[in-house]
Design brief:
Blueprint (H helix, E strand, L loop, with lengths): L16 E15 L4 E2 L3 E2 L3 E19 L8 E6 L2 E2 L4 H11 L9 E9 L10 H23 L18 H15 L11 E4 L13 E3 L12 E5 L10 H6 L7 H21 L2 H20 L10 H17 L4 E4 L5 E5 L4 H12 L8 E5 L5 E2 L1
Parallel strand pairs: 5-7
Antiparallel strand pairs: 1-4, 1-14, 2-3, 4-7, 4-8, 5-6, 8-9, 10-12, 10-13, 11-12
Helix pairs in contact: 2-3, 5-6
Length: 377
């Protein structure tokens, strides 16, 4: 598919008022996306676990404008309170996606959103938040087209672009739009593992949207656990957008992109065989490579904190002493995602409570596991 497949043709606005609600989860990348080109396109392929409990619930209320205008008219409410802080990012998002959902200026919107995880907890909410909003927009597009179809064609209704609004088209377009709000949001539409970015060994993979991982996955990776240790809940000193842009002139960028794609090739075999020892090597190497890119960019920066390193060393010691399959990964911040198979859940949660919680800000951590993607309310 190309961008043109998501551009609508003519349609009729005959849905004057309504609301749509979707929930969408966060995700944690195993092979990291760091570096982009064009309009939110990835410089390398990434693969992620979709989380189950950390999600955003968004209600989109819409009403047809009585007087047409050439502006985006919307208000944002976070956990019941009007928020001006989110508006600039959503306005940028609307500017990027208007070509693909051209009814945006026809309506007044109220966006009501909330997270199931604490706000400002240090967990990036852009993936879950932007994917939930994108799902609402595609659902509204589908509704507009359905309502504009003649009755005899109602059951064969097609999307505004003339392509049948099948489930796969719906999810592809939602991921496509979500990507334009936040790259990692493209991986939050489906579950339980999602690939974003073209890869020669993964049929159907695309830079335009994420797809559900289509190859064999061993039972070892089903219901995989992720306990998120909240080391630092403060605002990052360097945003992810700035960090991505610093890859353009990075001395090691090409080698990093090659490394990521090769690591995904290795994971294809690992996912099929269930080899947890090799899984650990790839996942931890990817996490440290991500932060190595930050530390060697110009300007350079460090997002890990001393307690991040304390936790990593504790995990390594515990693994050596017990032969556990515990490992860690990191996002673009100080928090640590502790990954482990469900079979070790009891023992590792005890280890986390006894040894790792002391390094968390206010002792906070969140238990999660692989989930099954977005859901309409």
């Amino acid at each position: 598919m190309t961008e043109a497949d998501f551009i609508p043709k003519n349609y009729t606005n005959n849905s004057e008022k309504g609301s749509i609600t979707w929930q969408s989860p966060s995700n944690i990348a195993l092979v990291k996306y760091w570096g982009k080109y064009g309009e939110q396109l990835p410089a390398n392929t990434s693969v992620s676990f979709t989380l189950s409990n950390c999600k955003t619930i968004t209600e989109l209320k819409y009403e047809l404008k009585k007087t047409p205008s050439n502006t985006f008219d919307f208000e944002v409410y976070f956990e019941g309170k009007k928020s001006e802080n989110f508006k600039p990012k959503i306005k940028t998002f609307f500017n990027r996606v208007e070509k693909y959902v051209p009814f945006l200026k026809d309506y007044q919107f109220e966006i009501h959103t909330e997270n199931t995880f604490p706000h400002s907890s240090g967990i990036a909410s852009s993936a879950s938040g932007m994917s939930a909003l994108a799902l609402c927009l595609v659902d509204l597009e589908k509704s507009l087209r359905l309502r504009s179809e003649s009755q005899e064609n109602y059951n064969n209704a097609r999307s505004l672009s003339g392509v049948e609004m099948s489930e796969s088209y719906f999810t592809n377009k939602a991921s496509f739009l979500a990507r334009l709000g936040s790259g990692s949001a493209s991986r939050s539409i489906e579950g339980d593992m999602v690939v974003w970015g073209e890869h020669s060994e993964i049929k159907g993979s695309s830079n335009l949207f994420g797809i559900k991982y289509p190859l064999p996955v061993h039972e070892n990776f089903k219901k995989y656990q992720d306990t998120i240790l909240l080391v630092d809940k403060g605002e990052k000193q360097v945003s992810s957008s700035v960090g991505h842009n610093l890859m353009h002139n990075h001395p090691f960028s090409e080698e990093r992109f090659q490394q990521a794609n090769e690591n995904l090739s290795k994971l294809i075999t690992i996912f099929e065989s269930g080899n947890l020892s090799e899984f650990i090597k790839i996942v931890e190497s990817e996490a440290l490579s991500l932060h190595a890119m930050m530390m060697t960019s110009m300007p350079y920066f460090i997002l890990m904190k001393p307690n991040t390193l304390e936790i990593i060393n504790k995990i390594w010691s515990y693994r050596n002493e017990t032969n556990s399959y515990i490992c860690f990964t990191l996002d673009a911040g100080a928090n640590v995602h502790v990954l482990y198979p469900e079979s070790e859940k009891k023992e590792i949660l005890e280890f986390i409570k006894n040894e790792l919680v002391a390094f968390c800000q206010n002792g906070q951590y969140i238990c999660d596991q692989i989930g099954f993607g977005s859901k309409k309310h």
